[in-house]
Amino acid sequence: MRNDSSPHTSIDLSRKYCTFHESLPMAFALNDGRVKTYPSIGHCIYCGSDRKLSREHIIPFGLGGNLVFTDASCDQCARVTSDFERYCLRNMFLAARTHMNLPTRKRKERPKTLRLSYFKNEGDHEWLDIPVSDHPYAVVLPVIQPPTLFSGAPHRDGLVIEGTSVRAGPNFYQKLQSFGPNKAFTQEFSPDLFGRLLAKIAHGYAVGEVGSYNFRPFLQGLILGTQTFSSSFIGGGSSQGSRRLLHQLSLEWRASFLVCSITLFSMEASDSAGSAGPTYDVIVGMAA
Ligand SMILES: [Zn+2]
C-alpha cells in the first residue's frame, strides 16, 4: 500500500492549502451535464498498483456523480469498490434513483415497480410491488456520531448510528396513505458498506483536489475492507445547508487533519421539513 513511503512526503503544506477552510464548493446540480476530470496520478489511488488502471467516478455514476478520475483504480480495487457501490445503488438508493431518473448503465433494466412493506401482523411481513408513479419514496440516511478521532469517544469498529434522517419524496404521506394502513417505505442499509462508500468518495476527492503526496491517507484499508475502526474517521458533521444541489463535497484542514464533508441527497423534497440531509465528516488523512 502506497502512503507515507512516497518519496514526495517532504513537500510542505503551504498556507495556500489552509485556505480550504473557505471550503471548495465542488458540488453539482442534478443532471446538469458538467463533468470535472482529474488527471491520473500514475497509480491506483487505493493500493498503489500501476497495472490495468481504469477511471473512477468519485461519487458513483449511478448517483449522478460527475467528478471523474482518469486511470485511478486498478482492476482488483475496482472490483472491491464496485461491490459496495453496487449494494448502495441497488439496495439503499434504488427507489430514489428510479424516481429522480439518476443515471444508470442499464436503462432497460430500470424498474417499472418499486416495493412497499406491508406489515400484516407482528412478525408477518410482505412486499407489495407498486408502479413507480404511485410509489412513495424517501431517502433514509443514518445520523452518526462525529468521528471519534475528533470527539474523543471510544473507537468502534463500525459507524456509531444515532438515528435516521428521512428525506421524503413528493407527496410521500398522501401516496403512502392511499395504500391503507400498515404500509411503510423501508430501505435496506448496511452501515459497513455505506461507510466504505463515504470513505471512497472522500479519499478520491481529496487525492484529486489536494494531490496524493500532500497528505498521508488514512482510508485505503477501510475502503478495501482490510481494516475496520471506521468510527475513528467517519462521522456526522454540520449541515452544509444548500438544497439546490443534489450532493455536496468540501475539503478543509482542521489542525493537521484533512477532512472531507459529504452531503448526499441534499435536495429539497416537498414533504421534508427543515434543512438539507445529514452531512458526514470523513477524516481522509493528515498533513504529510
Ligand atoms: Zn488498486
Describe the fold and architecture.
It is a single chain. The protein has 288 residues and is of the alpha+beta class. The protein has one domain. The protein contains 8 helices and 14 strands. Strands 1, 10, 11, 12, 13 and 14 form a 6-stranded antiparallel sheet that branches. A 3-stranded mixed sheet has the order 2-4-3. The longest helix has 20 residues. The site of zinc ion (ZN) has 8 residues, from α2.
Question: Any key phrases for this structure?
Answer:
288 residues, alpha+beta, single chain
In a few lines, what is going on in this structure?
23% of the residues lie in helices and 28% in strands. The protein has 288 residues and is α+β, with helices and mostly antiparallel strands.
Number of domains: 1
- Shape descriptor: globular
Q: Tell me the β content.
A: 25-35%
Which compounds are bound in this model? zinc ion
Helicity level: 10-25%
**Mind telling me the C-alpha Rg?**
20 Å
**How confident is the prediction overall: mean pLDDT?**
81
Task: Tell me the number of helical segments per DSSP (H or I, 4 or more residues long).
Answer: 8
What is the fold's blueprint, element by element?
Layout: H1 15-18, E1 26-28, E2 36-38, E3 54-57, E4 67-73, H2 75-92, H3 94-99, E5 113-121, E6 124-131, E7 138-144, H4 148-151, E8 161-168, H5 172-177, E9 183-184, H6 191-210, E10 215-217, H7 220-224, H8 230-233, E11 234-236, E12 247-254, E13 257-263, E14 279-287
Parallel strand pairs: 2-4
Antiparallel strand pairs: 1-12, 3-4, 5-6, 5-9, 7-8, 10-14, 11-14, 12-13, 13-14
Bound molecules: zinc ion (ZN).
